[in-house]
Amino acid sequence: LLFQILGAVILGVGIWILADKTSFIAVLQMASPSLKTGAYVFIGVGALTMLMGFLGCLGAVNEIRCLLGLYFTCLMVILITQVAAGLVIYFQKEMLKEELSHIVENLIEYYDPLNDDERNLQDAWDYVQTQIACCGWAGAKDWESNKILINQSMTAYPCSCSNSSKDFQVDTGFCNLDVPVNGTATYADWPVHEQGCVDGVQKWLKDNLGVILGVCTGVAVIELLGMILSISLCKNIHSEDYTKVPKS
């Protein structure tokens, strides 16, 4: 039962990644095909874990060594895959960070409130900037590459970046700046947050690192216990008795 619950949790994470439309996950999964692939992997692993939990229970109750052996093998494969994925992420973190930076910079450059085709992706990024209280990826200067803002001589700024109380109810699109005497401005003139979102995301990861590691460790420990228990049961079953297999 415990492994079926674990499988349901993993399955739920995969579905959440695909269904989420209002957070940083949405920005990633709509801009990067690799995250969508990862979501489908989560769904597959979750479904497999639930199936293995059922087979493990069936093998234990009916003392069927082949089912317990299959259960052990699948758990070992899943655990090795998880460890391998963790190592890949750890050693490829700089490349992943660079890819993410490119995705966000491209989004900022072509951000257009009137573009309905990219509305979900842009709304997700606005949500990130509002919730984390940040602006741009490295900082507000990133928005100086936006084509619409360039055409307006930087006399407008992204509302979701605003730290001004008058823009509190507006969290998408562009807000107009009080036009300077010379009719031009820079990002330094905008009433926006100074922190870049990369710093906000890293701070969130740092603050929640303990929880993330705890969950990963807990999952690994449960899988190891399942492997140990299945091997112990296999050793205690002296002979195979296929007459115990439930008949349909």
UniProtKB/TrEMBL annotation:
Coiled coil located at which positions?
none
Q: Which InterPro entries match?
A: Tetraspanin/Peripherin, Tetraspanin_animals, Tetraspanin_CS, Tetraspanin_EC2_sf
Name of the coding gene: Cd82
Family to which the UniProt record says this protein belongs: Belongs to the tetraspanin (TM4SF) family.
How the protein sits in the membrane?
Answer: Multi-pass membrane protein
Recorded GO cellular component terms are: plasma membrane
Q: Which UniProt keywords apply?
A: Membrane, Transmembrane, Transmembrane helix
UniProt subcellular location: Membrane
Which is an annotated Pfam family here?
Tetraspanin
- The name on file for this protein is Tetraspanin
Q: Which domain of life is it from?
A: Eukaryota
**Residues spanning the membrane:** 6-28, 40-61, 67-91, 211-233
Q: Which CDD domains did the record assign?
A: CD37_CD82_like_LEL (cd03160)
Main localisation? membrane
The keyword Amino-acid biosynthesis appears for this protein: no
